[in-house]
Every structure is written in C-alpha cells, then in structure tokens.
Amino acid sequence: MSETPTNIVQVRRLSHHYGDRTALADLSLEVRAGEIFGFLGPNGSGKTTLFRILSTLIPAPPGTVCMLGMDLAAQRDAVRRHLGIVFQSPSLDKQLTAEENLRHHGHLYGLRGRELGRRIDQMLDRVGLSDRRHERVERFSGGMRRRVELAKGMLNQPKILLLDEPSTGLDPAARIDLWQYLTHVQKNDGVTVLLTTHLMDEADRCDRLAIMDRGRLAACDAPAAMKERIGGDVITLSTRQPAQAAQIIHDRFALNPETLDGLVRIERSRGHEFIPQLIEALPGLVDSVSVGKPTLEDVFIHTTGRFFRDEPVPD
To answer: pTM, whole model, 2 decimals?
Structure first.
C-alpha cells in the first residue's frame, strides 16, 4: 500500500454553481494528514456544498479535488472506501437496534461474519454503548444516537472522517463526549478529521480552520494564529452616530475604525488604556464600550468586513 501523502486533501480552484447562484468560487486549500480541520462559516458560505463534494455526494470537476493521492473525479469509488461520513441529518433506522444499524452499514462495505462482529464490538465499546447494543435506536437520546452515527462512520476503519455540523442537537455534555472521541481517533487511529461548523467554540478546537464566506476562502490557519494576526485588543463602541464617531477617531488618533450595524470597532494593543482617551474624544456620543481579546468572530469581521450571519439563501 502506498504511503499516505502529507497533504491528504488538496482542493485546487474548485467552483460549483446551483443554476445562477455560485456556491463555491475558485476555492483552493490543503488538509494535512492527521489533523482535525474545520470549515467555519454561516449558512450560505459554501461549507455544506464543499462537504458534499468531499464526501462524494456531488461530483467534483476533474483535477480540482485530490484525496489520499487520488483524483476524486476519476477515482471516486476508491476514495469512498477510505471515508467515514457522519451527516448532520440522522441516518439511523430508529426501528433497528444499535447493533443492527452497524451490521447493515458494514454490509455496504462488504464486511461479513467474524470480522464484522469484531468491529461492531469494538465500535460500540469505544462509544460507550456496548450495554445498549440490543435496544432500538428510537429509545436513545440525541447524544446516544450521535454516538451510534460515529460508530457507523468509523466501522470501515477510514483514513478520513467527515462530519457535517457534528454538534447539532447535542447538549453540552454530549458535545464534550464528541470531542473526546474525535481526539481519540485522531491520535490513536491516525484518522484525519474534517468537519463543518458554525459554532465558534467548536471551531476553536480544530488544529486548523478554513473560514468561508459566500463561497470563497476568507482565511485558513490555526485558530490561535488567525487571532494573533489581528493584534492587540478589539474595542467595540455602541453609538447612535457611528459615522461621526469613526471620523473623529480617524482624525484624532490616525486610526481606521470599522463601522458595522451601529457599532464602531477598533483593533489596538492595550485597549483598556485607550478607552479613557476615546470617551474624552467622543463626548456624548458613546452609549457603551467593551474591550476584549480577538475571537474567531473578530477574525471573520476582520477578513470579510461583516458580521458572522447566515445568508438568506442556504447552501
């Protein structure tokens, strides 16, 4: 078997359209083997379309997507054998038991007999459902069903695990369990994990992150590195006259503040020391002011010039 390439996923100038609407526009990025890589963006950013292409549900144009060293357009079936997929919408048969769901899924990959039984035992044990294997899935909580989905996704021992909005419908405790599992398969099984998300705290857990906006790649790096590039603190002013306040700040302090939805944003080091000067320079104009370290939402605003909000048209 050939050695796994360092860049396990390569996307080169990928575009996709739904009629007149552009879902992906000239997108290029790389995912390294063994990392947890996230696609962060609001609905309408293109991340779900990209997920569908990487999971082989939508054909990729020739030469645009390479996975495990194979052209996805020319070798789709060969790539599929190495993928584990967990969809946002449940794909379980609720009338079947946890074990039966896994057994039928294994048959799709040509698994039978003792080997299939061994893998079912292993996966149910790993997700903590060995003692519930004979219960119908309809009796399970949302978190337990997600664990069965994860067991299904890993049953074929994939090299790449793809998850679409994996925390959807999960309570905080179940989300912690989910991430413990993802970290386990990454570090112990050498699985590369790709996931889409619109949750900032989930995106922060990724090794690297692609921030997507309206079908384009806005930024791609480790979350901490992206936040560091903003530099210093983020000061946010609430004011009824944002344009006037921004102009005064520009003229007085030679800064270039952003105005968004009645707010004025300033990126500056030692922001807490700068606030008294702002208040003095803007008498009667400031309704409230806050200061904090950059977040991924600040990165999104910094790179796109707008707030992290869903587009009217979904992916």
So the answer is: 0.86
